[in-house]
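User: Look at the shape:
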Amino acid sequence: MARTDRTAAIADLKEKFENAGAVLLTEYRGLTVGQLQELRRSIRTHAEYKVAKNTLARIAANQAGIEGLDDLLHGPTAIAFVSGEVSEAAKVLRDFAKENEALVIKGGYFEGSALDAAKVGKLADLESREVLLAKSAGVLKAALYSAANVLAAPATKAVRTIDALREKEEAAA
């Protein structure tokens, strides 16, 4: 690779590392070109999937301030630069790896720390952002509903007591 091509490739990878919300590394040895295209199509909404030379990726990651990926950058490596939901991108990779055993999830980098393959699997197990927001809204709604019942209880009790006294007076008269 010519020096200018190498410098341009490092600059491109550095920019992708800096702009990505997370980075997921995979080994694609044994996948066909068609399978790689299928994976790229399926992950496109959440991440950009790019095959990179390990040396160039290592240099670019270090220049971008990302540490801890050096041990993962060996063998044929493809990197998913996540721009959308990290859990959704991890799910796509996990599901594709289940269908195609040749794809191996090596690890990644998220929120300032390197991840091993098990932690990427845990990210994939997370529910989507929308589901988590809906669940938290349901919890808040339930808390507000019970607070409203607690606040309305004394007034309801007072009305029932007054009605009972009125009925008692009408029955006595």
